[in-house]
Design goal:
The complex is a heterodimer of chains A (347) and B (118). Chain A is α+β, with helices and mostly antiparallel strands and 347 residues long. Chain A has one domain. Chain A is built from seven helices and 18 strands. Chain A is globular. Chain B has 118 residues and is mainly alpha-helical. Chain B has two domains: 70 residues, lambda repressor-like DNA-binding domains (434 Repressor (Amino-terminal Domain), Orthogonal Bundle); 30 residues, no CATH class. Chain B is built from eight helices and no strands. Classes of the chains: A alpha+beta (347), B mainly alpha (118). At the A-B interface, strand 1, helix 1 and strand 16 of A face loops of B.
Chain lengths: 347, 118
């Protein structure tokens, strides 16, 4: 089951195992320059707000209530990354593992293939947590992603439109599969463990809320989806477990609708958080960027379908309405985050 | 000896075994803003359980759930009372129906994110 707690999707599978809990949230972040360079990971500026679609059923399109799930607000061209926390209750045994599929507009963010049921290893169409703490974009090449950037549907920018030629779904779709309980009990017996992972949060105030947007909200406008932005260094790690270790009988899934700032105000009567600072302002303020590495893990290769997509910058220049990169200086303060390996017990 | 006092003392002494200084009678009383002698009498059952605010403060000091301590003291939090009083019929009925349900079934009542067709 999924609950919304503090702007976080809390997944739990009490019918599988009491420790089978994890959470997902969507972090506000800087949009990195969309050029040929490869950047480090930008900070998390706090989670985007999340509300139940059902609480605003009279104010959203029928398709949204049909999809169910939640709504979050994003400005056009705003970026996000997804934070996975495997917080399964028992530290002495290590966090409960989960396989997670992430799609945008029902296109898999790792393989570029249309969303489908189940899990596949060739190519691997999911992430594994713990191990993969963050996902910042589309896996275009081994160790390289293109940042998730919000764009209106119908203008050809989103991954969905570039790959399917249709602007049908938008939003983000997440499906979570727990490890089979008996596999967890066998692989993770009780041993002394230490908490893993560093954090990835910037030095910018995260709780500020925006001023009213200029002009009134009138028509609904168009839905939003995610599109490929600038390139950054991030590995999507190979699954170290067996496909048969995952419990395909017990999955939970959620459709995350993206409302633009005007729609969000119309729906909830509140304003979305301020837009994040520009990447150059952030860097000039001496705030840190991030890098995550894990020597013990192998990365999956990128998807050629995703690599063939054109970035928001390239498409917007073609359309004559360019979304400009802000002036840019290379980040020099990079925090290297390394997981403390959680060792598996003997089996 | 009252059940409330005994529970309180056991909980405090358990914490004290891990952190000698932080959970002495004197320290816990200070955190909960009460006299050590009063806390001692409550622990020994020589005084009845204190009022709601003090119980909540003790729960904070001992990292215990306030609802659990209130229940041991034979009380229900004012907040819960107000919730029931706002919709007495609905909540009365609901609580009676939940009475015999196992914990996992009660936990199922939390607000889930609804999945639809996509």
């Amino acid at each position: 089951m999924i609950e919304v707690k503090n702007n976080t999707l809390a997944f739990s599978f009490p019918e599988v195992h009491e420790s089978a809990t994890m959470s997902v949230n969507f972090q506000r972040t800087l949009r990195i320059p969309d050029n040929d360079s490869v950047y480090p990971l930008p900070p998390g500026l706090g989670p985007f707000p999340l509300v139940h679609v059902d609480d605003y059923a009279d104010k959203v399109p029928d398709a949204w209530t049909d999809h169910g799930g939640v709504i979050l607000p994003m400005y056009q061209a705003e970026a996000m990354w997804i934070l996975f926390s495997s917080n399964g209750g028992d530290w002495e045994r290590g966090s409960y593992p989960f396989a997670i599929k992430v799609s945008t507009g029902k296109i898999d963010a790792i393989t570029g293939a249309p969303h489908c049921k189940g899990l596949h290893k060739q190519p691997q169409d999911y992430l594994v947590t713990p191990g993969q703490p963050w996902l910042d974009g589309y896996c275009v090449k081994k160790g390289i992603i293109r940042q998730f950037v919000a764009m209106p549907l119908g203008q050809g920018y989103t991954a969905e439109e570039q790959i399917t030629k249709e602007a049908e779904y938008g939003g983000i779709q997440i499906v979570v599969y727990p490890m089979k309980a008996k596999v967890y009990d066998r692989r993770f017996p009780k041993v002394e463990r230490s908490r893993s992972l560093g954090s990835r949060f910037g030095g910018v105030a995260t709780g500020s809320w925006g001023a009213p947007p200029a002009g009134g909200a009138s028509a609904w406008g168009v839905d939003m989806g995610l599109a490929p932005g600038g390139r950054m260094k991030q590995e999507i790690f190979q699954d170290e477990f067996n496909l048969a270790d995952w419990d395909l009988e017990h999955s939970s899934r959620c459709f995350i609708h993206i409302a633009n700032s005007m729609q969000w105000h119309k729906i909830t009567g509140t304003y979305p958080p301020h837009q994040p600072p520009s990447a150059s302002n952030y860097t000039n303020a001496g705030l840190p960027w991030f890098d995550y590495y894990d020597d013990h893990m192998k990365a999956v290769p990128g998807s050629s379908k995703l690599a063939n997509m054109k970035s928001v910058q390239v498409l917007s220049q073609k359309s004559g309405k360019p979304i400009l990169n802000s002036p840019w200086e290379t980040p020099n303060d990079i925090v290297y985050v390394k997981p403390r390996r959680v060792r598996e017990g003997d089996f | 000896m009252s059940e409330f006092g005994e529970y309180l003392r056991k909980k405090r002494e358990e914490l004290q075994r891990k952190d000698q200084a932080g959970f002495s009678l004197r320290q816990v009383a200070a955190t909960a803003q009460m006299e050590p002698s009063y806390l001692s009498k409550i622990e020994r059952g020589l005084q009845p359980p204190p009022g709601e605010a003090t119980i909540v403060a003790l729960a904070r000091a001992l990292d215990e759930d306030p609802d659990v301590l209130l229940a041991l003291a034979g009380k229900v939090s004012g907040e819960l009372k107000r919730i029931i009083q706002q919709r007495p019929k609905l909540f009365g009925q609901l609580i009676r129906e939940l009475k015999d349900m196992p914990d996992h079934a009660v936990l199922r009542l939390v607000r889930e994110v609804r999945d639809g067709n996509w």
